[in-house]
């Protein structure tokens, strides 16, 4: 029997920054439902069946727009103009130093103080199963140069896959762009339960080394013999308490893997199984890497961490799998470039494909 909360559209209808906010529902014919607010392009609910056909809500989120705005800023969001960390909030572009808004001292994180997770997108429901969201990053916004419009399409198919596809173009100046999705998953259907029993596989034999502030240094480390080796299916809790500096610094997993695949190709980045419910999630993307995060800074704090159905979101009650270009690529010439010249497009896709085992 399903016990998910019914989200009500009227609880999301308001105006923020003079722009209309709403809640949109996407569905397929087999029962999958995805609910998205255009504030931050955030996924607030995602219903998929377990092995017995019972629908469950497999993402953390909130019941009202007020809760969303007072909640975990990244939860469910589309992240731009630049996801991950930019070391020291600065980088060189065509020989000129750019300084971006520092909101995770000393670094810029997830686009700055008011990145896309705090912005209202223009929204247009295309049909029952797809939603178009658009936003224009302005020249100088959060310190980034150049106008950058982005168009997102969220769509669900009959195979219970949610696709997030984006296209963006540098209009007037050389700029940088790096996008991801920051949905917080718990495949059990109980958003307050631990995810340490979820079994994960990550298609990465190397991860990005971090400095003391959490920004990638440019070095890539072989996962062999480390707590970060998920090349074969391993429960998230198996090694999360291993004595390791990066696990200690992040209070759990918070690292970026280099995905073994041809550049630009859509490929499987990761798979997760929740053994008790049988629900599975396969993450596919065009991007060169993927961040694994185990909800280390969910703290059960009121009101920030009180979600749907008054569920308390506590440490390790969700995981995120965030495909993107590598964080801090702007400062590491050996990483795949995130620079866009005027007229150059950035297109990419993330697919969250759900199934049962």
What do you see in this structure?
There is one protein chain. The protein is mainly β. 3% of the residues lie in helices and 40% in strands. It has 2 helices and 28 strands. It has helices at residues 65-70, 245-250, and strands at 14-16, 19-21, 23-27, 33-37, 42-49, 55-57, 77-79, 85-86, 90-93, 96-99, 108-109, 122-127, 130-137, 148-156, 161-169, 175-176, 180-182, 199-202, 204-210, 216-222, 234-235, 254-259, 267-273, 279-285, 289-293, 320-324, 339-340, 345-356. It has a 9-stranded antiparallel beta sheet with strand order 12-13-14-15-28-24-23-18-21, with no helix packed on it. Strand 1 (14-16) and strand 2 (19-21) form a beta hairpin. The longest helix has 6 residues, at 65-70. The protein is globular and about 60 Å long. The model has no long low-confidence stretch (mean pLDDT 97).
């Amino acid at each position: 029997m399903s016990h998910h909360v019914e989200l009500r559209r009227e609880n999301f209808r308001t105006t923020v920054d003079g722009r209309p906010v709403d809640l949109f529902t996407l569905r397929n014919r087999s029962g999958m439902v995805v609910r998205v607010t255009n504030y931050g392009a955030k996924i607030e609910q995602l219903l998929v069946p377990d092995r017995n056909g019972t629908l469950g809500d497999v993402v953390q989120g909130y019941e009202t727009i007020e809760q969303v705005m007072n909640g975990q800023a990244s939860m469910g969001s589309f992240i731009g103009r630049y996801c991950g960390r930019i070391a020291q909030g600065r980088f060189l572009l065509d020989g000129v130093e750019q300084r971006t808004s520092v909101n995770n001292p000393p670094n810029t994180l997830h686009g700055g103080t008011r990145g896309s997770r705090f912005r209202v997108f223009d929204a247009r429901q295309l049909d029952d199963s797809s939603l178009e969201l658009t936003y224009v990053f302005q020249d100088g916004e959060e310190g980034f140069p150049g106008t950058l419009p982005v168009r997102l399409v969220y769509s669900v198919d009959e195979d219970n896959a949610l696709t997030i596809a984006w296209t963006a173009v540098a209009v007037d100046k050389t700029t940088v762009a790096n996008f991801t999705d920051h949905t917080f998953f718990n495949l059990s259907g109980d958003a307050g339960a631990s995810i340490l029993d979820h079994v994960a596989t990550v298609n990465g034999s190397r991860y990005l080394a971090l400095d003391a502030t959490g920004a990638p240094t440019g070095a890539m480390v072989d996962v062999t013999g480390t707590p970060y080796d998920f090349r074969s299916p391993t429960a998230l809790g198996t090694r999360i308490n291993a004595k390791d500096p990066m696990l200690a610094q992040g209070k759990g997993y918070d690292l970026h893997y280099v995905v073994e695949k041809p550049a630009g190709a859509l490929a499987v980045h990761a798979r997760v199984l929740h053994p008790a419910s049988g629900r599975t999630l396969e993450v596919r993307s065009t991007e060169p890497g993927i961040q694994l995060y185990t909800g280390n800074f969910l703290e059960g704090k009121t009101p920030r961490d009180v979600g749907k159905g008054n569920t308390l979101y506590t440490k390790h009650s969700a995981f995120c799998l965030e495909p993107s270009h590598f964080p801090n690529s702007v400062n590491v010439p050996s990483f795949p470039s995130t620079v866009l010249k005027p007229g150059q497009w950035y297109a990419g896709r993330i697919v969250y494909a759900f199934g049962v085992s």
